[in-house]
Specification:
The complex is a heterodimer of chains A (283) and B (315). Chain A is mainly alpha-helical and 283 residues long. Chain A is 80% helix and 0% strand. Chain B is 32% helix and 28% strand. The chains are: A mainly alpha (283), B alpha/beta (315). Chain A binds chain B through residues 2-3, 6-7, 10, 13-14, 17-18, 95-97, 99-107, 280, 282-283, and chain B through 49, 83, 86-90, 106-107, 109-110, 112, 114, 116, 118-122, 124-125, 133-134, 136-139, 176, 179.
């Protein structure tokens, strides 16, 4: 375990010294400032809006804005996770940074697990801080609070962990640039799957909805995001609920316990493939 | 070889602290000093990258306290051999053992120190932090004392708090050697350790290697600098096309090339003469009225041996 903490600490110190945290904090502050500004204007004008019958304007505005903030949180968390892990194996090996560490009497699997934990130790608190900060801004400006407070945040963090694991897996086989592009494209594919689900719901097309669901579960960070969106308005019904379930960037879909178990199994599976691939890799 | 128990205790050899080794078996009243495994034992080692054969059946042994030089043109398989020894590359077939443990195993990696040919350390780390990281990974309990000793050993005692990115290439290379020595390894694998060093730096490393040898560390030194290998190595192995083409001590590899005698008329070379001919040749010259200032036995240099072995094949 000492080696795990040593490597994880090494990753954290690298992020700290490389001023990754400074940049992330500044950009996140900019994001939250803009979000606060948007929420302030939106809720100031919501009183003067004449919504369609059956739609609660304040709930709609609050949930829609917060849904957008959740997407922003997921996106920023994914960016952070990818940049912290995209060169872990092949990238670091090509830069000759990895070899001095691998020849030490620590297992290659230990090194991978430690780098994953290091990335998780940065990304999970980051996502949770951003999630709760945007929730606080929404609540304070619009007096609207999500139906579920903690679960959606944890699901977003879980989604980011899955992306970090995929990025680590990719780093075993791909160079840093190729891996970064691949993981961003997978993230984009998840976004498209969510939007296809939206279109399927609007058109009432079971085939499209089914295809979107399969795609979202194949890359479960998307399914977790959809479940998180669903959780923030799970007690909202009627037309407001229907509209909100279409979501700002991908529809809200219930995943439930099955999804969470699948997400954990997926993490283990991705980790096992990454460890097996790394063990066979010549450096 | 049997020793009384008390003698056996005193037979422990020490290196960089109190870690004992060499005692391979204990009995109630006596212990046996068994045959100690070679620091590095390689047999029938083959490595193929697709259709390219990097190693074609290499046999090599580095004994305890031995300093072996590995020579060969670029692409001869030297770095592949070193990488297999430290577990970075898996052999296609054949066997490689470090101190009796399969190369790449945890035990093997715990017994070695490695400096890669093209290595880099994180630029944001200071020299002290880097060594501390490697101490933790190597399970070394040497603490601050070991770090200070190692930095002093490579002449970086004043650069302890300097980040790697603020160091010259030569300083980084010396730091690399210090890093390889963390945890008192029994086998040191050095891949071109002096490529970025100036002549003074090279001399420092040479002195360091001799000191390590005195302390019982085995070294496999991969270098293109023939003069360096000739000066410090006990044995030399020349690889070509993934195979050992020549191996032996520098003395064994050196061939007589005659005798050179300096007289008042200049230098004369007798290519067929040997050491035993020198008194006769000098006497003849004196008898002929020449003044003799010196006589020298000529032998081939390692460079001659190398060029002959690789057949003029360069990179």
């Amino acid at each position: 375990m000492t080696a795990v903490w040593t490597i994880a600490g090494y990753g954290l110190r690298e992020a700290l010294r490389r001023k990754v945290f400074v940049v992330v904090c500044l950009l996140s502050a900019a994001f939250l400032s803009l979000y606060w500004l948007g929420a302030r204007y939106a809720f100031n004008h919501v009183g003067g809006v004449e919504p369609p019958v059956g739609v609660d304007a304040r709930t709609f505005a609050g949930a829609f804005l917060f849904g957008m903030a959740m997407f922003g949180t997921l996106f920023l968390g994914v960016v952070l996770a990818i940049f912290l892990t995209l060169g872990t194996v092949r990238g670091d090996a090509e830069r000759a940074l990895l070899q001095p560490l691998v020849v030490r009497p620590i297992g290659r699997s230990t090194l991978l697990v430690a780098r994953f934990l290091g990335a998780g130790a940065v990304c999970v608190p980051y996502v949770l801080i951003l999630y709760f900060a945007s929730m606080l801004l929404t609540g304070l400006e619009g007096s609207w609070w999500p139906d579920r407070i903690v679960t959606p945040g944890l699901e977003l963090a879980g989604g980011v962990l899955i992306v970090a694991a995929l990025s680590l897996l990719g780093s075993v086989f791909l160079s840093s640039i190729a891996n970064g592009i691949a993981i961003f494209m997978i993230f984009g594919a998840g976004l498209v799957a969510g939007l296809l689900g939206n279109i399927g719901h609007v058109l009432n097309s079971p085939g499209l909805i089914h295809a979107a669901k399969i795609a979202a579960w194949a890359i479960p960070f998307e399914a977790l995001y959809q479940d998180a969106l669903r959780a923030i308005t799970e007690k909202t019904s009627g037309l407001t609920g229907f509209l909100l379930r279409l979501g700002p960037f991908g529809g809200a879909e219930q995943g439930g316990v099955g999804l969470r178990l699948w997400a954990v199994a997926y993490l283990v599976l991705v980790g096992a493939v990454a460890v097996a691939g790394f063990a066979r890799r010549d450096l | 070889m049997a020793l009384a128990a008390r003698e056996c205790v005193t037979a422990r050899l020490r290196f960089f602290g109190d870690r004992p080794f060499f005692v391979t078996a204990w009995h109630d009243t006596e212990c046996t000093l068994g045959v100690v495994s070679a620091a590095l034992a390689v047999s029938g080692l083959v490595k193929r990258y697709g259709a390219v054969e990097a190693l074609g059946g290499v046999d090599l042994e580095v004994r305890e306290s031995e300093l072996v030089g590995l020579l060969g043109p670029n692409g001869a398989g030297k770095s592949t051999l070193v990488k297999i020894a430290c577990g970075l590359v898996r052999p296609t077939t054949g066997r490689a053992e470090v101190c009796g443990a399969r190369a790449g195993s945890r035990e093997a990696r715990a017994a070695l120190g490695y400096l890669a040919e093209l290595f880099r350390f994180p630029g944001w780390m200071t020299a002290d932090e880097l060594l501390e990281l490697h101490q933790r990974l190597a399970g070394s309990h040497g603490g601050e004392r070991e770090r200070a000793d190692l930095l002093e050993l490579v002449g970086l005692q004043d650069a302890r708090r300097r980040p790697v990115e603020a160091m010259s290439k030569g300083m980084q290379q010396r730091l690399g050697i210090a890093q390889a020595l963390v945890g008192s390894p029994r086998l040191l694998l050095l891949d071109e350790p002096t490529s970025a060093l100036d002549p003074v730096g090279r001399r420092t490393v040479r002195t360091l290697l001799e000191e390590l040898q005195r302390r019982g560390v085995s070294v496999l030194l991969n270098s293109h600098l023939l003069s360096e290998i000739e000066l410090v190595c006990d044995r030399v192995v020349i690889l070509l096309g993934g195979r050992v083409v020549t191996a032996g001590t520098p003395a064994e590899l050196a061939r007589p090339r005659g005798v050179e005698i300096e007289t008042n008329e200049g230098k004369r070379t007798y290519p067929e003469a040997g050491r035993e001919d020198i008194p006769r040749l000098v006497a003849e010259l004196v008898r002929d009225g020449k003044s003799v200032y010196g006589a020298r036995l000529l032998t081939s240099t390692l460079e001659d041996v190398y060029v002959e072995a690789v057949g003029g094949e360069g990179s």
